[in-house]
User: Which sequence fits this backbone?
């Protein structure tokens, strides 16, 4: 074998680095899949902790004369409120599942006939084939499986509460840890800016989405109650939750009430009214109010958002789709600060400009970002 030339060494080094990158990517994917039981609650806990920390920082700066709320007391109150809120959501979810299980068998039969009726215009043979295909689906088994997940949901809820509590316990030492991790002052300050920018962008996204989704859910509930559609409360809650999933969630949240109306009422009049009314609410809020409140703060590519939804949905299911945009924001901001990864940030951005997002996040975050 001939001697290794100077030209071949860089090529060999690049091949080794590419191989290491491929292996590392595979290891990360396997870890994300196999560790989803504790990684999903951890991701939710970090998100809740980040959002609550911003609120605590704001409250701790409020002074009424000589009175102020100590940071440690605000943290304890925050953990208690988060725990109470999560337990209340768990109780609400199990109650909705129980109510669905009661009427699921009857609704499954009526849904099969209603869906088959949609294909009558293609011929009786097609309608019968569709009906036969739907009859092969055991809807009861799916509902029982959903009910069986209540135990896992309770464990996940308790894990989130546990993680949030320990994150708040560690909160006073975060800045000291960063200073010790990066002894060079400029690097520590750069990491601080990145964390502040991430916090601001994620806070802005979650806050706007929460307000918009809550408004949508209230309007949907009022409309469905007025039209006497079954499960108005459940459908409103699903509308609130699904609106956190960009693009796809609003479509599903529009179709579900129409399907319930199709099963509940005779004829096509009421399903069409429900479809057009709920669709009008979703369209007006999603295309007018949401962009107006969200602005251009995230600066994300729509196509990249769809890819992120697909990827995290495949890895972590529906919860992954909720976390897809916040994770994408974090990846974009971090990549924008690493020269080798900057092309990834450019691809994830809406128009190739990434400095505006980072600068806005740091400037606004500086006004309210404090860790101690």
Assistant:
């Amino acid at each position: 074998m001939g001697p290794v030339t100077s030209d071949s060494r860089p090529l060999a080094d690049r091949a080794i680095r590419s191989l290491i990158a491929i292996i590392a990517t595979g290891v990360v994917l396997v870890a994300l899949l196999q560790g989803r039981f504790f990684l999903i609650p951890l991701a939710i806990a970090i998100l809740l902790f980040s959002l609550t920390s911003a609120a605590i920082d704001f409250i701790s700066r409020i002074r009424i004369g000589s009175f102020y709320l100590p940071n440690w007391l605000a943290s304890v109150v925050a953990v208690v409120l988060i725990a109470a809120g999560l337990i209340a959501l768990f109780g609400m979810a199990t109650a909705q599942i129980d109510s669905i299980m009661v009427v699921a068998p009857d609704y499954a039969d009526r849904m099969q006939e209603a869906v088959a009726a949609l294909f009558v215009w293609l011929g009786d043979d097609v309608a019968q084939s569709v009906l036969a295909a739907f009859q092969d689906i055991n809807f009861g088994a799916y509902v029982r499986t959903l009910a069986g997940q209540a135990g896992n949901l309770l464990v996940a809820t308790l894990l989130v509460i546990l993680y949030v509590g320990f994150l708040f316990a560690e909160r006073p030492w975060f800045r000291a840890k960063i200073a010790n991790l990066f002894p060079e002052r400029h690097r520590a300050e750069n990491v601080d800016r990145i964390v502040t920018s991430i916090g601001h962008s994620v806070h802005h996204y979650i806050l706007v989405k929460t307000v918009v989704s809550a408004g949508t859910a209230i309007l949907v509930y009022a409309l469905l109650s007025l039209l006497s559609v079954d499960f108005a409360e459940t459908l409103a809650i699903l509308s609130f939750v699904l609106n956190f999933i960009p693009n796809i969630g609003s479509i599903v949240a529009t179709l579900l009430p129409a399907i319930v109306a199709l099963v509940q009422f005779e004829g096509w009049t009421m399903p069409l009214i429900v479809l057009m009314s709920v669709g009008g609410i979703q369209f007006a809020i999603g295309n007018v109010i949401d962009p107006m409140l969200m602005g251009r703060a995230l600066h994300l590519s729509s196509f990249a958002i769809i890819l992120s939804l697909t990827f995290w949905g495949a890895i972590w299911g529906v919860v992954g789709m909720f976390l897809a945009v916040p994770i994408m924001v974090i990846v974009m901001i971090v990549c924008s600060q690493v020269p080798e990864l900057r092309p990834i940030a450019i691809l994830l951005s809406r128009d190739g400009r990434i400095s505006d997002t980072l600068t806005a996040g740091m400037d606004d975050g500086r006004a309210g970002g404090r860790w101690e």
